[in-house]
Design a protein that fits this description.
heterotrimer, A alpha+beta (83), B alpha/beta (230), C alpha+beta (760), A: 83 residues, alpha+beta, Mth169, Chain: A, 3-stranded antiparallel beta sheet, 33% helix, elongated, C: 760 residues, 7-stranded mixed beta sheet, 38% helix, globular
Chain lengths: 83, 230, 760
């Protein structure tokens, strides 16, 4: 069945303390060439049935309205993956 | 005078909110997230907890619960609505109040007896406080950092929509030390600390005079009773 | 892979089975064959192997634990509604209310995956409480980690605390107390014990038995997946299935939201009277739940494994039987009530499936894919497991250890050195401020927490009208137990008893979590034997029953076992929580009294540990009758409101008790030791740091002085005025007259710096 992968990241101007903590850990472990980390979410959404333009439009809406909070997050990509 | 408290799957402080309403002298009414029925209450409380496990984002899934359409409708018509902690997160997700919440800047859950400044005593829930009054209300959460873009912050500060501010220390990195906000009209208020845990002597926060004696939370509920019955 | 069926087992009696890899001894395997009259199927082998494991069967400890059931006085039986053997003990607290409580360990998983190990530990003990028909109302945890300086300790600490915070807070249960210790002996074997308390009306009591032929067996909660399968994978590895998900994870992952929903769902099922029997699924999952329910009931059950709702469709029969997926319960439901039952679970969105029913065959029969894969007498699985009498040997090292007393260590007599040692003690990891940990826990939720950390016991209000409530404290000093496990166990009970008494409650019941090294080590078995004997003897003297508990063996790395650590929890009853006594004074100008005698007893003390890195000698003497008298006195004082605070003396002696009393609310004190020195014939260092038992400091309002002293004299309990409470605010100080003065802020700062330094 077809699957959409939706990626959501905190907006660039938002402080991301979790990403910052991960970057700190990397540096403490000696990986100083990796200078920054930002942490987001990846959703895999399975579609029952064929994908139409209407499906794609609905998914975009869902990504904006439910999977992300537009005040603090951006939907950075929506990709169709053929399983 | 009937005040409703909505229970969502994972709500925790709903029973405590019901108790606080009873102590304040109103009739507490238990409402269910899945029903389109506010049962004719005069005011509403969205309680604290971990609705839906905080999955996706705190308050996100709850903000789409069936009863929320009635809540939004009633709020827009002027019904007093109080969102406590997870309830505040729901109000923000539902765009009934401005801003959003993320993980505490200290990265873990924080429970403390928090000092707050009452910035605006003209909302439906704060009339019994004096402007600039300092109160103590328990705070307990992991995703309490209030943020909004610069324009929104300016707007809510200028409009007097900042209802409470953290004093003494900012426990979670909230912008401008904002602990609670209201909508423009002042009938909908959201705050991270828990007034329902500061209503009963012996079970509230510590105060300078005695252990567990804080009762500043009671006036949230007596304020709204006064406002509605007026 | 097709399952190994009963027919197949009969047809292939000589098939080689990996019983050793599953943890069974050759004689145990032979016994199973004897019981069944044939070889076991793979499914039956998996069931027996887990249910007969040390963790589930208590085979090495059973013969000793019997003492808790044997040394029982009539008074101990008075309030006991459910004793050992059920999911948790239950006692009557009056007014038609009952309380159920238990402590359990989740040690090994918490070393492997600290966050999930600790989280699922909380989940597991809470489910035990729910399965008694109770609403869980509080949790506590007893944590023991390695040395603070060891970098691995930080990994374990942050994971464990995070896990408890995550799961407990999300369930909405106040965390009202516990202990946190650091000692190198726990480096590779941290101890994570979790306690939960629940409240119920007498008529809501439910037991885990499947009675009533034709009653349905219903599994509800989370779906069953590949969590914690462990041994069953060995069976699966017989023919590796490459189409399944990657190899089964051994660690269980908890979902507290699912458990919160389960709590509410169960309580509604109980309210509506829809459940005849109920069992939670923990270790050994479905195989444990079915065999225990059947064994405790009419003895017969039929289960259709195909009906189990799966998260992972590739699981084999054995894996389904053994899965330890969390947040699942099994209920016994009358057929006529099934529809109503399903309506409630549907309302809460809890997935449910009817697995089978109670029968009168006396056999647990399980079918899968149309074949019979299990056919056993359930009591042979769940009840009549092997009972070992392990070899016991008096430790070769203990006489030398006992001869090396701390009384020979140099004790200072000058003010400045005493001051310095006082502050070192206060700042030592075991005595330091634990706020860094405890501020990650909620105690406000449910609005009934009358006392919480740093008070000596947690106290919960049960009845909002009458104020009826209970207090719980947990204690154990592993260092004392290393010196003498019999006495150490008694000291643990005495301390928990005292901690409950100082809050104004009357001790009524005991639970225990016995953490020890390997039972295959005869010296460890000696420690275990002595500890259980000590604890059971002490319970008999103090007239309070052990209502249930847990044993955790194999806490050792290589040859080095942990110190024997029998954690003892005591629950007490208070008629009205309004009469609770906090642990520290809040007003200036009150008198401070010390109850009890101080002797030179520094062996195993925090002072010996911190100042001299010394462990040797014999633990402090314990006088159980004295502790009971002290408890009774405190109860009397609470009833009449004669004391404004009471704090027990334990680790760190009087010094630590004073430090905690002045820093709690920032109210200083002026104390003088002269009277102690004179009456008890000890020096200043001993007065400050000795850990003699049966001692409490109290603050008394001047108007109640005469009455209070009169009460002590009437009861014949030694009492000495040692000082007066002083200023609060920036000038507050602890003035130990003639010796040293320390600003309260300095004590607080030294204490608060330690944990963040290592774990912040």
């Amino acid at each position: 069945m077809p699957v959409f992968v939706v990626e959501v990241m905190p907006k660039p101007e938002i402080l991301d303390p979790q990403g910052k903590a991960v970057a700190g850990a990397l540096s403490r472990l000696g990986h100083s060439e990796f200078s920054a980390v930002r942490m987001g979410k990846r959703f895999e959404v399975t579609v029952d049935g064929p994908i139409t333009d209407a499906t794609r439009a609905r998914l975009e809406e869902i990504a904006r309205e439910i999977l992300s909070n537009q005040v603090i997050e951006d939907v950075v990509s929506i990709t169709e993956v053929t399983a | 005078m009937r005040i409703g408290v909505i229970t969502f799957p994972g709500s925790l402080d709903d029973r405590d909110a019901l108790r606080a309403i009873r102590i304040a002298g109103a009739e507490p009414v238990s409402l269910w997230h899945g029903e389109h029925d506010l049962q004719g209450v005069d005011a509403l409380v969205l309680p604290g907890g971990f609705s839906y496990g905080d999955y996706l984002r705190a308050g996100a899934i709850a903000s789409h619960a069936p009863i929320m359409s009635e809540v939004i409708d009633a709020a827009n018509k002027g019904m007093p609505v109080l969102g406590i902690c997870n309830g505040f997160q729901m109000l923000a997700e539902a765009r009934l109040v401005p801003g959003a919440h993320t993980r505490n800047d200290v990265q873990h859950f924080v429970r403390r007896d928090q000092h707050l400044l009452v910035e605006n005593n003209s909302t439906a829930w704060t009339t019994k406080f004096s402007a600039g009054e300092e109160i103590i209300i328990p705070l307990k959460n992991a995703d309490g950092r209030f943020i909004a873009d610069a324009d929104t912050i300016t707007r809510i500060e200028d409009n007097g929509q900042v209802t409470f501010r953290y004093v003494g220390m900012n426990p979670n990195g909230s912008a401008d030390d904002i602990a609670g906000v209201s909508n423009e009209r002042g009938n909908v208020v959201g705050l991270m600390p828990h007034p329902e845990h500061a209503v009963e002597p012996g079970f509230g926060p510590d105060t300078a005079s005695h252990m567990r004696s804080g009762r500043d939370g009671l006036r949230f509920f007596t304020s709204v009773i006064e406002r509605v019955l007026a | 892979m097709s399952a190994d069926t009963v027919d197949n087992a009969i047809a292939t009696p000589d098939k080689e089975q990996p019983y050793a890899a599953l943890g069974l001894k050759p004689d145990e395997y032979a016994r199973i064959k004897e019981i069944l009259g044939r070889r076991p199927t793979s499914g039956e082998l998996a069931m027996y192997s887990v249910m007969w494991s040390e963790h589930c069967s208590y085979k090495s400890s059973k013969m000793y634990l019997r003492q808790f059931g044997q040394k029982v006085t009539p008074k101990m039986r008075e309030k006991l509604m459910v004793g050992m053997g059920e999911n948790a003990g239950v006692i009557d607290i009056g007014e038609g209310w009952a309380v159920t409580f238990k402590v359990e360990s989740h040690n090994h998983p918490s070393y492997i995956e600290p966050f999930q190990g600790a989280a699922t530990g909380v989940g597991g003990i809470v489910r035990d409480i729910i399965s008694m028909g109770a609403r869980p109302v509080a949790i506590m945890d007893q944590l023991r980690f390695g040395a603070v300086e060891n970098p691995d300790t930080a990994r374990v600490v942050s994971g464990v605390v995070g896990g408890i915070s995550f799961y407990g807070n999300c369930l909405g249960l106040p965390n009202i107390g516990g202990e946190t210790y650091f000692d190198a002996v726990y480096q590779g074997n941290p101890l994570v014990n979790a306690l939960a308390v629940g409240v119920l009306r007498h008529e809501d009591l439910h037991l885990a038995n499947a009675s009533g032929v034709g009653n349905k067996i219903v599994l509800f909660g989370a779906r069953t997946g590949g969590d914690g399968i462990g041994g069953a994978s060995i069976l699966a590895s017989d023919s590796f299935d490459s189409t399944g998900p990657t190899k089964r994870p051994a660690v269980q992952v908890g979902d507290p939201f699912a458990e919160k929903v389960l709590i509410e769902c169960c309580l509604e099922l109980y309210r509506e009277g829809l459940v005849e029997g109920i069992q939670d699924l923990g270790a050994a999952g479905i195989s444990c739940a079915t065999s225990e329910l059947a064994a405790n009931g009419d003895g017969g059950m039929f289960v259709e494994l195909d009906n189990v709702l799966l998260r992972d469709p590739t699981l084999t029969s054995e894996e389904i039987l053994m899965s330890e997926s969390q947040e699942r319960m099994m209920a016994v439901v009358e057929p006529g009530k099934l529809e109503a039952f399903l309506a409630v679970t549907a309302k809460w969105d809890v997935e449910t499936s009817v697995l089978g029913e109670v029968t009168d065959t006396g056999r647990l029969v399980i079918h899968h894919n149309g074949h019979e894969i299990v056919n056993v007498d359930p009591s042979t699985v769940a009840v009549d497991g092997p009972v070992y009498e392990r070899p016991v040997a008096y430790p070769s090292w203990i006489d030398a250890l006992n001869a090396d007393s701390a009384s020979t260590l140099p004790r200072p007599s000058d003010g400045p050195t005493l001051r310095e040692q006082f502050l070192s003690l206060v700042a030592s990891p075991n005595l330091a401020d634990k706020s860094m940990i405890t501020t990650q826990y909620d105690y406000f939720v449910m609005g009934n927490t009358a006392l919480s950390f740093p008070d000596d016991a947690g106290m919960i209000r049960v009845d909002e009208e009458s104020g009826l409530g209970f207090s719980v404290a947990t204690d154990c000093n592993g260092r004392y137990c290393q010196l003498d496990p019999y006495q150490g166990a008694q000291l643990a009970l005495a301390e928990a008893y005292r901690n409950v008494s100082v809050t104004g409650a009357v001790p009524a019941a005991v639970t225990d979590c016995l953490n020890f090294g390997s039972p295959e080590n005869p010296e460890v078995m000696w420690q275990f034997q002595r500890a259980v004997e000590g604890l059971s003897d002490a319970c008999e003297v103090m007239d309070i029953p052990v209502t249930g508990g847990n044993v955790s063996f194999y806490n050792q790395t290589g040859d080095v076992a942990i110190h024997p650590t029998p954690v003892v929890g005591v629950l007490g009853i208070i008629d009205d929580v309004a009469r609770r006594i906090p642990s520290a004074w809040q007003e200036e100008g009150q008198n401070i009294y010390l109850l009890g005698h101080t002797n030179l007893e520094l062996d195993g003390s925090a002072w010996a540990n911190t100042i001299h890195a010394h462990l040797g000698g014999r633990p402090p003497a314990v006088d159980l009758e004295r502790e009971m008298a002290l408890g009774s006195l405190l109860h009397g004082a609470a009833l009449e409101g004669l004391v404004t605070s009471a704090h027990d003396l334990s680790d760190g002696g009087l010094a630590q008790a004073l430090a905690e009393a002045v820093t709690r609310f920032g109210v200083g004190a002026r104390v003088y030791l002269d009277d102690i020195l004179e009456r008890d014939g000890v020096d200043a260092a001993t007065a400050l740091f000795s850990e003699s038992t049966g001692r409490v400091i109290v603050s008394v309002d001047r108007v109640d002085d005469v009455k209070f002293v009169g009460l002590c004299e009437a009861r014949g309990y030694p009492v000495l005025r040692i000082g007066v409470t002083d200023r609060k605010g920036v000038e507050a100080e602890l003035d130990v007259q003639g010796l040293f003065r320390i600003p309260v802020t300095e004590i607080a700062q030294r204490s608060a710096e330690t944990l963040p330094k290592y774990f912040g």
